[in-house]
Amino acid sequence: ASWWAADARTQLRELDLAAAAPVVIVTGFVAATADGVPTTLKRSGSDYSATIFAKLMSASRITMWKNVDGVYTADPRRVPEAFPIDSLKYDEAIELAYFGAQVLHPSAMTPCIEADIPIYVRNIFNPAHPGTVITGRACSLETSSLGWAGEVKTARKQLRKAACPVPLGDNSAPIKGVTSVDSVAILNVQGTGLMPSVEMSSRLFSVLHRERVAVLMISQASADSSICLGIQESDADRALEAVRAEFFRELDATENIKISGISIEEDKSIVAVIGEGMAFRPGTGATFTKAMATAGVNIRAIAQGSSERQISLMVEREECTKALRAAHAALALSDTQVSIVVLGSLAEAGKSMAGELLKLLAGTGRLAYRGSSPSALTGATAQLPTSLDGLAIDLKVTALASASASVLSNDGIDVASPNLWATASSSVGETLEGVTFAGCGYAEEGEDCLEMLTTHLLEDFNGNRIVIDATEDARVAEHYPRWLTLGAHIVSSNKLATGGPLATYRAAKNARSDANTQWLYECSGPGSGLPVISTLQDMQQTGDRIRRVEGVFSGTVNYVLESVRGGAPFSEAVAAAVAAGYAEPDPRDDLSCLDTQRKMLTLCREIGGMPDLEPEQLLVESLLPAALSGWEPDLASGKSVGEQLAEQLRPHDGAWAERVAAAEAEGGELKLIGRLNVEAGTAQLQLEVVPPTDTLARCEGMQNVIVVHSARYGAAAGGPLVLMGPAAGHELKAMGMFTDVLRLSRTLAEWNIPKIL
């Protein structure tokens, strides 16, 4: 009791602490009522005791030693990307605590607010960390409102959009934290518009007050006098019974019905974003709700406090964690994360396209995975400049799958780790048939890989999801519509999706349009990464009309024919193309021109020349000898398909040498030429003797050349549009797909999330 005495407090404050600094050890948590009855201070009682003594002693600061590095932007158990907040206003800390933050209780802050004493929250196990300081009051509603009104007038005079008059600091977000309350129920009172809303509200809140039911959230529709309230589930039954009893006459009425129903919905959670920077700042609410839509979280109710320091959403309890993580990423409390799934042969870089892609992803230095966000990589690849520079984006690889190995992790995979290749290996043919996810925690033995992957995409909290398909698998292509409908975007080199059955192509196109998602497939068409598809799309979207497209569309075949022209046997040229990584996993697809046929079909469908063309309708000349049309490799021989095929081709070396020599005798070069005539409605792919002065003869080695004749690019404009460059090999194809990934990532960061002014 002596602590409260005025003379004792005065003596304590007048102590010369330079001469003697007493250490006062006081029991916390316990207390007594005004009548002297022993009691406790309940939750955070020890903190409350400390702040009471801090006020009594006129302390200059108080430090709360906890087991965490301060107040976090979210619960790190549910949002792994959460991090400690540098500073908070008292009002922000109270809002966070009210909505579930466990570090401090609002009552514990009251004495420090009254005496304006800063509160420091620090980690007893990590004293080097500065923690979080809580100090100062937020602007009053009146001050903020006047500031906004003045800004609106000024903006109108200056013919610009109004922006929040309170600027954010460098790298600061308008909100300080995302938090939640679980075990919430919705009490719905549905009016018909016949009862005045004043009467309904008065009676409803009066009965809840009598029953001592705390209201966590209010959302009202004035048009029909309907109200929904968020309350604790433990109060739900009592509240429902009391409210029905209060309005029993209205519920039983057969005429002039004023209340159409009173009901309870359980298993809900409240998710709230909190921060003084939200007040009168356009775009914050839109970003919050957009993040929910992108993540596929339905909003059951919404409310905003009068101070605009918090916005609350009611969601299903099972979607609460997804909502928290989506809001945390969208509102720049952490970098916008793009979840990436990579499908394809997982051989190391240089041995497969997927391996090269993983190398390029690691090279951004922006990989997020458990313990690193983004990753701090070393070595030459970490220095690779990318279009992510200057953007708050992290790339998180959440799944890898090949024909022989698979990895799945919602926390992200460190694809730069050398241990990754200990369980992932290459195999003949990049297909996924019969693969199961190993060690993913919830996969049943023998469960289909692609179904598991679909479930994984569905459950991913992140609305920014990209599937990179580096396979040539028909079953993968058939899953495109489902993935696009789920909101995932696709970057593909799988020509069975664009150049396979027409039904597969159209289903994916329709799903993309309906779901407003993206499907980029530059590497599926001619050029294998050269900007052919995107260029043709841009030409047509700007009003140009494509008339003819012709070119050398297979870098692998061109390399083989050039090698034969240089004196190499045909079989050795094929073996060299395989060794260099230019050929498809099964080089028969190159020599039979099946791979090039799919590129041609992609082109036909993209420019609308013959949109209904099926693969068997395209005229194709095969380079594979007729004697080998039915040949199959011996997979048990220990030799690759390329090695076995080269052996089978040796008897045909002479015939190919003669054919190439005959072309030279005619004064030309033997080239595999694809021709698409939009106006005539014809498409063919065949070997031709091309004079050396022809544009199509200019490509060397594994290069491609594409010549586009259009209304804009023709004789009147000085000639057709020519695209030429290297177009074979894992590295080039991977770079083409990587370019699509970066382009899509920039779109997700800049367009998918509204700009906060």
Q: How would you describe the overall organization of this protein?
A:
The chain has about 750 residues and is α/β, with parallel strands linked by helices. The protein is built from 25 helices and 24 strands. The strands form five sheets. A six-stranded antiparallel β-sheet has the order 8-9-7-10-12-11. Strands 15-14-13-16-17-18 form a six-stranded mixed β-sheet, with helices on both faces. A six-stranded mixed β-sheet has the order 20-22-21-19-23-24. Helix 11 links the parallel strand 13 and strand 14 (about 395-400). Residues about 375-385 and about 420-445 have low confidence and may be disordered.
Largest sheet entry? 6 strands, antiparallel
Strand content bin? 15-25%
Number of DSSP strand runs: 24
- Average pLDDT metric: 83
> What class, by secondary structure content?
alpha/beta
Total number of helical segments?
25
- Our Rg estimate from Cα atoms comes to 34 Å
Classify the helix fraction into a percent range.
Answer: 25-40%
Would you identify the regions where 5 or more consecutive residues have pLDDT less than 50? Answer: 373-385, 422-447
Cα-to-Cα separation, first versus last residue: 53 Å
